[in-house]
Amino acid sequence: MNFIALRMLMSDRAKYWGLVFAFAFSTFLLQNQISIFCGIMMRTGSQILDVTDADVWVMDPYTEYFEQTKALKDTDLTRVRGVPEVDYAVRLFKGNPTARTLAGKFASTFTLGVDDSTLVGVPRKMIMGSWERLTEAKSIVIDKAGYNLLFPGEPLELERILELNDHKVTIVGISDAAAPFVSFPVIHARYSEAVNFQGRERNQMSFVLARPKPGVSPESLARQLEQATGLKARTTREFAWDCVVYYLKNTGIPVNFVITIAVALVVGLAVSGQTFYMFTVENLRQFGALKAIGVTNTRLVFMVLLQAVVAGAIGYAIGTGMAAAFFTATLNGMATRGIILMWQAVVGVGGVMALVVAAVSILSVRKVLVLEPASVFR
C-alpha cells in the first residue's frame, strides 16, 4: 500500500513538484525572514558583546540601551572600584564624531574610547595591524566595513590618515568588529584621545566596565554594584538583551517582519493545503477502487498521511537548502555580514511545517473517509 500511495503522489510530476515547492518556498521564506530579523536585532548589542574583557556594565540609572548614554562623573569610577567584589573597573567613552578622509569623504562613526593603560574593551579580532598599537599617539583602530565605507574600492592599508574633529589620526589596525545596528564605522581609540574627537563636555565617561573577583558571578556583582552606588549595573548579556527589547518596543521593525512572516505562513498553508486537497480529490477514484477491494479506512488514512509527510519533508529539505545557500552567499557582504541561518529558525520552522502537513492531511482525509466505494463505478 505504501508503494501505491507514493506512485499516486508522484504519477503527475507537475502537480507533485508544485506541491513540493509550495512547502519549499514557505520553508525558505519563514527561515529567511526569521533569521534576518534575529540577526538585525542582535546587532543592537553587538558593540557590547564585542567587549570580552569585562562582564558588568555600569551606567546612569535611566539608561535603556547602548546608544542612549548620560555621562557619569569621574567619582563614579572610584565608587565602583570601592566595591569589594570588583576585581577591576575601567572607564569607557562612547561618542559619534564625524570622520573625514583627506579626499573629503566623511561619515558619522561609533567611536569608543578605551582605558589608556589597560585597553580593556578594544576588539581582539583583528584583520590587519595590532590593537596594542593604540598606545601610540593619535592612533585608532577601525572596523573593516567602516574602512570600506570611507575608502570605497581601495585595498586595506595601514598608516592612512583620518580627521576627527580637527584631529588627524593614523589607522594602526583594522578590526573584525561585529556589525552595528546602523552602518557607522566602528572606531576604537584611547579614552584620553577619544573624548577630544567628540568635543569636551563637563563629564565624558559613558560607562564603567567591571570584572568580578574569582568566585563572584557577574549577576551577583551587578546587583551589589547597584546597591552600593545607586547606578544601573547590567551583565554583558543582560545589557545586550536590554537593547533588543528596547528596539522591539520602540521601533516598527518587529511589526514589519511579523507581517512578512505571517504572510509567508498563510500563503504557504493556503497554497500547499489547496494543492494537496486538489491532489486528493483528483485521486478519489483510486481511493474508491481501493475501498471497493477491501482496503480499510485506517489504511487509506495512513496512505494520505504518508503522501503529505513525504511531500512536506522533501519540500522542507529543499527550502532549508535554499535558505542555507542564501545565507552562505550573503555571509561576507558588508551589509549582511554576521547574519546567518539560525538553528532555532530551522527547528522552529520544522515544527510549523509539521503542523501545516497535519492540517492539510486532516482536510484531505475527510474526503476519503466519506467516499462511497460504489461511486467510482457510476
Automatic annotation (TrEMBL):
Q: Which Pfam families match?
A: FtsX, MacB_PCD
> Which ranges carry the MacB-like periplasmic core domain?
51-227
Q: Name one GO cellular component term.
A: plasma membrane
- Its membrane topology: Multi-pass membrane protein
Q: Which domain of life is it from?
A: Bacteria
The entry's keywords = Cell membrane, Membrane, Transmembrane, Transmembrane helix, Transport
InterPro entries of this UniProt entry?
ABC-4/HrtB_transporter, ABC3_permease_C, MacB_PCD
| Organism ancestry | Bacteria, Pseudomonadati, Verrucomicrobiota, Verrucomicrobiia, Verrucomicrobiales
This one is known as: FtsX-like permease family protein
Span-the-membrane segments of this chain are: 257-279, 300-327, 339-363
Query: What region holds the ABC3 transporter permease C-terminal domain?
Result: 259-370
Instruction: Give its localization.
Output: Cell membrane
